[in-house]
Every structure is written in C-alpha cells, then in structure tokens.
Amino acid sequence: MDELASFEKWLTRTEDKLDGGKIKRPGSIVDACQALSKARDLRAEFDKREEPLLTAQELIGDDPEIKALSSKCERIKKLTEFYLSKVEALCVLWASGQVNADMQAIEKALKASGSKITMTNEDLKACVTEIQAVLVV
Fold this sequence. Notes:
The chain is mainly alpha-helical and about 140 residues long. The chain has helices spanning about 1-20, 30-50, 50-60, 65-95, 105-110, 120-135. The longest helix has about 35 residues, at about 65-95.
C-alpha cells in the first residue's frame, strides 16, 4: 500500500506540473524539442509507475479507494497524452514554419512529419489556436 500512496503523490505532482495541459512559450525551437522529450519521458514513466495500481486492481478488485485512484490515474494519463500531442504539434508547426498557416496546411505538415498526434478536429483547432497565441507575440 505504500507504493500506492507514493503513486498517488506522484500523480498529484504530475497533475500540478501539467497545469491543465497548457503549453508555455519556449525560448527556442530547441527548448520546444526538449519539452517534447520530457513529455515523452513522462508518458513512459506512467507505464512503470502504475504497475502497483494494476497489481492492486487484480488482487483486491472492486475497492472504492482503488477505483478512485484508478480514475485519477486515467484522467491524468489522458491529460499527459493530450499535452504530449500539443507539444509535438508545437514543435512540428514551428520547425515547418506553418504556425500561421490555414488548418489544411497545418494538417498536411503534421501528417508529413510522421506525427502520431491523436486529436479530434475540434481539439486540433483549439491546439493550433493555443500554439499561435503562445508563439505569435
């Protein structure tokens, strides 16, 4: 159970760090790429850190505390994935010079980059608007 308490603290810290998935203005394209690398590392860290929760779900089953922690984990995992997609989009658009392009050109640039961004059209539009607000001063 100590592992679960540690995992819950890590989830809370991670959620605070992600600040709702908002992206911050990087100083340069290099800083943006470093942020992308950190976001990928964070996603990979989830797989390792959630193992005690998965074990507890198997052993204990239908426990309210386990369900609550599992729900929190899924919420923050989705936020992490969404943040990763946003930072990846920021890097691709900045590197390709497509920050102020129309949506069709932006989608083409993302596909051409081999990006694995998984967003709905609506989310992508919101993401691009956020990126433009961050990068265009």
